[in-house]
Structures are given as C-alpha cells and as structure tokens.
C-alpha cells in the first residue's frame, strides 16, 4: 500500500492506493481488508455526458492525503457525524494521476460517486454534514463559495466578501450545532490578515423533526451485512431544508448470521484461487502443539479467524472458530544438554550449570538421568525442581563426558556433552640440558605448575625458525646442526591462558664437563634460589679465570639446584666469527688438565662473606667429544648430563620431603621466598651479573642465567 485512509464513522471501511503492475489504483474494503474492490466511476460528468469506464480496466482513483494543517483541507475528507458522505479529489482512468484532477462525492459510503467540480476545492462539513461548504483551491483572490444542502447533489454559489480575498485557510466553529465558519487571509500581499466570519443560521427557519428523516442502510454493492451486522442510519431528506442540530450518528444495528466472508485466513494460511484458506508452503500446522505439554490443551486453528471487530453470530462461526484440543503425548525428541553460559569449558571447583532442552515431549512428565562423567549421576522425576538448571562441581581436571537421558511412556532420547574442566595455569618451566653436542638429539620438557591443568596445547620455536611446531605432548626431542648459542621457546595454551618460557642451550661438536664440589660450609648459606646460584656461578668462574689465566670464553659454570651444593664446569671450544682458532680435542684436554691441577692444589677459592672462605674442588672430569656413543665412552658428556638430571631429581625429592626425613639439614626455599636476606659474594661488583659494555650477555652467561630457572621445583 502506498496510502491508506480510514473512513470516519464506518467501522472496518478503508480506502487504499495499491501499486499493481507499476500502476497505482484505488481500492475500497468494508471488512477491514478481507476483500478489496476497485471504485466504480460515475456514469456521467458534470455536463451530463456519459462516461465510458468499464471495470476492471477503468475505475475511479482518489488522492488519499490528509492535511496536517487544521486550517486547510486535504485531498479527502469524511466525518463521524456524516458517515455516508465522502469528498475527495481524483481522476478517472486506468491509474491514479496528477493530471485532470476533479472533485468527487459519495453520499452512500463509497458505493457510487458523482463529479462535483472540475478543479480542486476545499470542503468543510457544517451542521453535522447537513451543509457542505466548498471553496476553490487557487492562488488568486476569490469572493465566492459554494453550498450544498443535499449531500453534494446540487451546489449554490454565495458571496462571502465584497473585496476579493487571498484565502489562507478555513476553520469551522466547534460544537454540535456548527453553522459558523471563519475564512482568513489577506486582501493584498502587503496587507494584514483579515478574518471573515460567515453565519449560516439565517438560512434555516426551523429545526428538523422526525418526519424530516428517512432510513438509509449501509451496504457494499447491495450486501447489507457489513462487519457482521446490518446498520441503518437516519438521513435528512434531500428536499427538507432544516437544521439538524444535536442529531448525530443516529443508527440502529443488528447482527448478521456468520458467513465465510466474515472470516480471514489465520496466521500461516493463504487464500487460494478457490477461496479456501490453506497452509502456506512455509507453515506446519502441527507446530502449534510443539510447546504443548501433555495434559494441557491448545487452540487448533481451522485456517480461519474472524475479522477483528466483526459482530456476526451463529452460522459458520463454530465451524470456522479454532477449537481447544488436548495436547498429544509425544516421545522425547531433539534432546540437548548445554551449559548455562554456552561454553564447553569450566574451572575446577566451580559450579557448572547444565540446561536440558527438548524440542518435542514434556520434561515435567519424564524421568531425566544425568551422568556427569566423573562417577556421579543424578535422576529427576520432573524438571520443575531444576528450572534454574542442574548444578555440579568437578573436583578434578580433564575432559568429562556428560550424558543425559529422558524417558517417558512413549519413548526416550539421549544427548552427550564433552566438558573440558581446567584449573588456571600459573607457571611454565622449560627443562633442557645446558650444553649439547652438534647433531645429537636432545630432550626438552615443559614442566607445569600446577601439573594437572586440563587439555593443553604446546607451541615450540627453535632458534630463528618462523614456523612453530605444535604438539599435544609436553616433551619433545630435537637436534641442532649449527654450533653456538641457540634458543628454545615453548608456549603452553590452557583455555584462554597462554604462558611461555625461553631457554638458551650451547651447541658444540666437542666439549668437556667437570663436576665441582664445595667446602661443606657453603651449604649453610645456600638458600637455593635462582639469584643466589647465578651469583655463585659468576664468582666461581671469575676465580677459575684469575687462577688459571684461561680466557673466560672457554669456561661456563652452572651451580646446580639442591643440596649438597655442586656445580657443573663446561670447557667449551669457543671460536671467533671467522671460524679460525677453533680448539681441538687436544686443546680442550690441555685446558682441562690446567683446571684440574689448580683445583687439586686447593687454590680455587672465594670469600663468601667476611670470615667465610669457600674452597672449590674437582669431583670428576668427562671428556665429551660425543661422536661415538658406545658403552666404552663411559665418560661421555651425554651420560654426564643424564647423571645431572638424576641428581637434580634426587635433590628435588629430598627438598620436597625435607621436613619428613630427620637428620637432613636442607635450606632450599621456594621461588616466592627469594626476597629474604641474600648471601653476598666477595664484593658488590661480583654480586652483579657480568654484562659486557655493549649491554649484551655472553653465551655462557645466558646459559648460566637460564640454568637458574631450572632449579624451580614446582
């Protein structure tokens, strides 16, 4: 619809302009849109000449715009006090047009129309529609208007001013006996507003009596039952010239017997060519009982519904009216189990709320069994007690299979949900050797705290590789083909949390390692925290360099976690960037002999604090070319590294259970206790990391620093 106009005084009567095949046509309905018809054009024009206009090829079309300005008239007008009279502008033809506009009037509620003017006019209703006043639409000054006392059948010309007036608007006086109108405008474009008051009371010499009226029945092309009732109005006889006064909307009504015309198609139904209402292609009538519960009832539509405000009775009313019907019993179908927040993850120790949903069937009359997958199951006789959902707390992490089954007398249905229960990941520690041999496989393990956090994804980066390796296991084996310092980074994804750790590993074709031990009094000051181990490692390395004169680039010292205090001394075949001056196995052996000689002479020592001097001893040496891993190489570096791992694990166990094993004096502390008093090395300078002038740490310093975090036994 482009425009819709509700006719005043007649319930259910509308005029509408619709676009059909790109042509705008005017239609009329008397039953609130159930049926629409074109308007029959007048038989003759103003001069009495016949108008040849045959439906549906030609009809009358009206402009349905209503003025929002109370002082001006729109294109169409009707009044509650004159329900049969409609005045509008329009044209005759195949479609609505802005050309050849004329004025038309209907005095029988749109059944027939007459042409009253060939130009647009404003029409005012006076005396409850007993008088129609018409004034021409023009930009020129006027002095005449037209009056009709017979509902627009005839018009008389009257002068309302002696001087032509540019009319700006017309206003009728309020009240039931309105016979006064006010015309306002100006005599010239420069003059002030002028008001002309016109009183038509003098035209009538008496008030209307009962005999001055005749009955008129509202109808639609002869059909008397409109909106389920017959309505009879009183209309003043056209030849009687009397004032109606307070008379308005005098009408009697009686209901009609209901027929098919009083019913429209219900929701989901469409009217077919045979006039019947049948289900649309997208509508399933059985869906009415979808949310229906056994023991209740629902309205089963017949495909029809009575037009709103229709007053018909009896007839086909019972046949066409929707009837209550008992809800059928149904087997459970379309069972779903979801969490209240829609997520498939939950935290350990927190409430999880499950919602059970069913497409068909009645949960309240079914038995519901829920298995939470952790050894606990519940059963409900009806779901009314769990309208807020079924709550459960998981005490362990993992992936749990939550199964629900619904049973009633007609059948059963089941559904499954896989829930990931996790706990927050707090810390990730990457464990791997400090030094490895070129092209030999090395194992790296991601140690987590807490150790059980649920489903995890591990992302590994090696060296400068741009593409990571993704695994579901926390341990991986790899080998490096390039000598030097290499980095390994692991990221652990647990739910929405991602933590990472990075370590540096030294890769050489040949190297040697030597286990160092210390005088027992060092254990009394060992807090077993990363910062303390880094400081002691630097102090021992400096003491070795000063005592032997060996360049620091060949020495790497790493204090191991746990008690008794021990360290690993690595002798590295350092080479410059050009690849020259590379140390051979004999060179490494010579450096080892120098170091062992000095260590055996008890000249390697440092002052832990004033009055406390610590001696460094050699435990045993391992030659580590690691070219041939045969049993004869009992001193290989790989075996040495494995021994370090086992020793570290033993120390870790002792540390963990130090309070349960009497006689063992253990001072290891957790990472969060590192703020306690630290044991200082010989001098303040020695207590600081040895950072080169360019701000970068040497490879051996990186390895020593990365070693420290491996001491965290979480």
UniProtKB/TrEMBL annotation:
It is found in: Membrane. Keywords: Glycoprotein, Membrane, Repeat, Signal, Transmembrane, Transmembrane helix. CDD domains: Sialidase_non-viral (cd15482). This is Sortilin related VPS10 domain containing receptor 1. The chain crosses the membrane at residues 637-655. One of its GO terms (biological process) is post-Golgi vesicle-mediated transport. Residues 371-415 form the PKD domain. InterPro entries: Ig-like_fold (IPR013783), PKD_dom (IPR000601), PKD_dom_sf (IPR035986), Sortilin_C (IPR031777), Sortilin_N (IPR031778), VPS10 (IPR006581), VPS10-sortilin (IPR050310). PANTHER family: SORTILIN RELATED, VPS10 DOMAIN-CONTAINING RECEPTOR SORCS1. The gene is SORCS1. It comes from Crocodylus porosus (Saltwater crocodile). It is a single-pass type I membrane protein. GO terms for cellular component: Golgi apparatus; membrane. It comes from the Eukaryota. Belongs to the VPS10-related sortilin family. SORCS subfamily. Pfam families: PKD (PF00801), Sortilin-Vps10 (PF15902), Sortilin_C (PF15901). Residues 676-696 are annotated as: Disordered.
